[in-house]
Amino acid sequence: MPRSSTKNKPIHPKRIHQAAEDGWTTIVTLRSRKPQNNRHSHTEQRKLEPAPIPKGCTLPQLQEEFARHETTWKNSTCHDALERRLRQAVDGMGSARLKRCVCVGLGSLSGERSRRISMVQLNCLRQCLKILAAIHQIDQIYAQDPVFNSLDEQLLATMNITVVQDPEAFDLIDETTFLLAPHCERSFLLPGLRGRDPLLVVANSFESLLNGPLSATISVEDRQLAQLFLGRRVAARFPDFEELPSAFNDLMIYWRQPDVKDDD
Q: E-strand spans in 73-167?
């Protein structure tokens, strides 16, 4: 989508990935080549590479760590609340069926920056898939994040999750997809959803994008995409995870309402 331009040459948006101090991988769209003021001059603006594997970290150690996070997750109030809300979503989808899962922006499971948050979100993904399996046959599970390293891929492979490269994940999304995109920037997510209609989505609130402080900063096209996304969907707030609130803050669960096509 064209953006502001220089005198002689049009400028096209450039997508980069930024590593935040709290462990998030933020996907950012650069909309201009104008110089930034000094207070933003230290922002990391480069494409992220696979996260370094900590010295001595092995797959068995990572599996043990994941098991500890799994225990914490299963004992949390968020675990039980998510099950109730996801079953509400399943009931609301009517006869439509999920066949594929796509996860975008999970973060490195072994890297030092994002490890804890990523482990919690992976537990969330596995719980969602277990609940959905009671009715839906999801045979294909994919994950995409530029910071995945070889150890992350090995761990995900033990869970039958296939790692794909950017932008393959969006090409895999269709009307039978469960999309998990925790804290994936919506200016990146929305264009990826253009022409695609996933049945179930867990992502940051599109309502807050349209009506909150960021509403004045989004383009007309992104606004239309967000409105189109919300048009056929019911939403429920993702429950709080008190042990690590930042893992799921501002997340919503969206499911597509059934129509004649779904019920055929």
A: 100-104, 140-144, 162-163
Burial of 186 (0-12, 13-18, 19+ CB in 10 A): buried
Strand, coil or helix: what is 237?
Answer: strand
- Residue 159 contacts residue 178 (beta carbons within 8 Å): no
Residues 53-83 have pLDDT tens digits of 999 999 999 999 999 999 999 999 999 999 9
Q: Please report the beta strands in the chain, taking only residues with DSSP state E, as ranges in sequence order.
A: 14-19, 25-30, 100-104, 140-144, 162-163, 177-181, 200-204, 233-237, 251-256
Q: Name the nearest CA neighbour of 158 among 112, 126, 113, 116.
A: 126
> Does the structure show a pLDDT above 90 at 5?
no
Neighbouring C-beta atoms of residue 172, cutoff 10 Å: 18
**Tokens 């264009």 sit on residue:** 191
Collapsing DSSP to helix, strand or coil, 67 comes out as helix
Kindly report the number of other CB atoms within 10 A of residue 202's CB atom.
24
**Residue 234 near residue 257, CB atoms below 8 Å:** yes
For residue 54, whether the previous peptide bond is cis, meaning omega lies within 30 degrees of 0, is no
Q: Yes or no: say if 100 and 137 are a contact pair by the CB < 8 Å rule.
A: no
- 211: helix, strand or coil: helix
Residue where the block lists tokens 């370094």: 52
Which residues are CB-neighbours of 192 under 8 A, at least 6 positions away?
104, 167, 169, 170, 173
